[in-house]
Write a structure and sequence with these properties.
By secondary structure, the chain is mainly β. Helices cover 0% and strands 48% of the residues.
Length: 122
């Protein structure tokens, strides 16, 4: 069962839902290919989905590949808010803005005592 929307991200406010990081930006790169509704992310452990409830409230675009942590782009359409939901996390209401779709990453120390980036496992 998806959790109900209890959190609201205000204009220009950063947030996260599990391993999906939400950092609003003023614009997206030009000439990106528009996509059908994707799942923003799957939980690696449970397989649950991070997804927008009403696909009419957002537009999705492919990644331009310039930032390895950005897997795509999302635009919440003017005057329509979007609800990001997931079975294991509180739902988030997103305001009209652009968002790169990012996987959260963390720095961990490996067996050779080196710091490395690794994707957060949700």
């Amino acid at each position: 069962m998806k959790k109900k929307v209890t959190k609201v991200l205000k204009k220009n406010q950063m947030g996260h839902q599990g391993d999906v990081l939400l950092i609003p930006v003023d614009s997206i790169p030009e000439d990106l290919k528009k996509l059908e509704k994707p799942i923003l992310a799957y939980g690696k452990i449970t397989g649950h989905k991070h997804e927008i409830l009403d696909d009419k409230s957002v537009e999705y675009y492919e990644s331009d590949g310039k930032d390895p942590f950005v897997v795509g782009w999302m635009r919440v359409i003017d005057k329509i808010n979007a609800n990001l939901v997931h079975e294991d996390h509180e739902g988030i209401n997103l305001q009209h803005q652009f968002y790169p779709i990012r996987n959260q990453n963390e720095i961990v120390v490996n067996e050779e005592d080196e710091e490395i980036f690794q994707r957060v496992i949700d």
